[in-house]
Amino acid sequence: MIAKDMIDKLCIIGVGLIGSSLSLALKREAAVGEVIGYGRNQANLEKGLELGVLDRYETTIAAAVEGADVIVVAVPLGAMQTVFAEIAKSARNDAVITDVGSAKGSVVQAALAEFGDSVSRFVPGHPIAGGEQSGVEAGYATLYQGRRVILTPLAQTDAAASARIEAMWRRCGADIEYLDVEHHDKVLAATSHLPHMLAYALVHQLSSLNDHEEIFRYAAGGFRDFTRIASSDPVMWRDVCIANGDALVDLIEQYQHELNSIAQAIRTADADELLRLFSHAKSQRDLQIGSC
Ligand code: NAD
């Protein structure tokens, strides 16, 4: 009899930053028997073996999921549906399946389309942890320590399947929260997806200027802090935009309106309005997040 929070065979589809960190965290806790990887890049999978992220890898999804009791899909959002279709053909009929995608609506739609009745054993998830690095070498065992993992189960999700995935993330040191899918996508559009758009847009704008090399030479701490996330993986962020487009476009439009108000206050030298806006923003940031 295996303990509720022990995984016998864990299959990770897409062995990058998020998938490899999960494996390393579970291995450190001795909470997993064998970790089997599948990905498209054989050199990356070989590296996974070398780094102790994987115990073995397979070159087809069918072989990788065979016998696995938990399957984690950690590929970019745009690849989820194709991967789900392959898993559906070959997974054990009691395997619990989860994903780590940064948006949930599109993943849930793909799962409903591909898993049929087995969708009850699919638990959508999103670790609120990560970074700008990608690939298996970027993974580390403490990535999820003290971080949140949001689970967005559906009405038909089996409670035991949710409990299994919750226990897996708890073994990695994460705190678990439950949100509904739509709410998750709205909140994450505001707190994560919009800021990435702003960072990409700023670096893109400045790098189009004739004297951009000089501008970047004088970039100070604030610019570095604000634009760090523009070094994130372009494929991942392309897919997030497509997957969570509606919520994101609404926020981009609100942000444009905000910038127009600032431009107007500057144009008319409206010092009171600028002070009011900056003071309000500062007090909210200090209150909600802290002053550093
Ligand atoms: P990554 O680029 O480090 O890893 C993704 C891996 O998936 C790569 O090894 C890639 O080769 C592989 N892959 C791509 N397409 C595939 C396919 N069709 N079949 C099999 N493997 C495939 O990316 P990551 O940062 O680990 O992100 C993975 C997922 O986690 C994404 O869905 C992303 O939205 C989500 N996520 C990322 C972060 C973050 O900050 N990086 C945070 C939370 C969630």
Can you lay out the helices and strands and say which pair or pack?
Elements: E1 7-13, H1 17-28, E2 32-38, H2 42-50, E3 56-58, H3 61-65, E4 70-73, H4 80-90, E5 96-99, H5 105-115, E6 122-123, E7 125-127, E8 148-151, H6 159-171, E9 175-178, H7 181-207, H8 212-217, H9 221-227, H10 234-243, H11 245-267, H12 271-288
Parallel strand pairs: 1-2, 1-4, 2-3, 4-5, 5-6, 8-9
Antiparallel strand pairs: 7-8
Helix pairs in contact: 4-5, 7-11
Bound molecules: nicotinamide-adenine-dinucleotide (NAD).
Note the total helix count.
Answer: 12
Could you name the CATH class of the largest domain?
Alpha Beta
Number of strands: 9
The major beta sheet can be summarized as:
6 strands, parallel
- Indicate the structural class: alpha/beta
What's the pLDDT, averaged over the residues?
A: 96
Share of helix, binned: 40-55%
Uncertain residue segments = none
Kindly provide the radius of gyration, computed on alpha-carbon positions and rounded to a whole number of angstroms: 21 Å
> Biggest sheet: strands side by side, in what order?
3-2-1-4-5-6
Order of helices and strands: EHEHEHEHEHEEEHEHHHHHH
CATH architecture of the largest domain: 3-Layer(aba) Sandwich
Provide the CATH superfamily of the largest domain: NAD(P)-binding Rossmann-like Domain
Overall morphology: elongated
| Beta-strand content estimate | 5-15%
CATH fold-type name of the largest domain: Rossmann fold
Q: Which ligands occur here?
A: nicotinamide-adenine-dinucleotide
Distance between the termini: 48 Å
Q: How many domains would you count in the coordinates?
A: 2
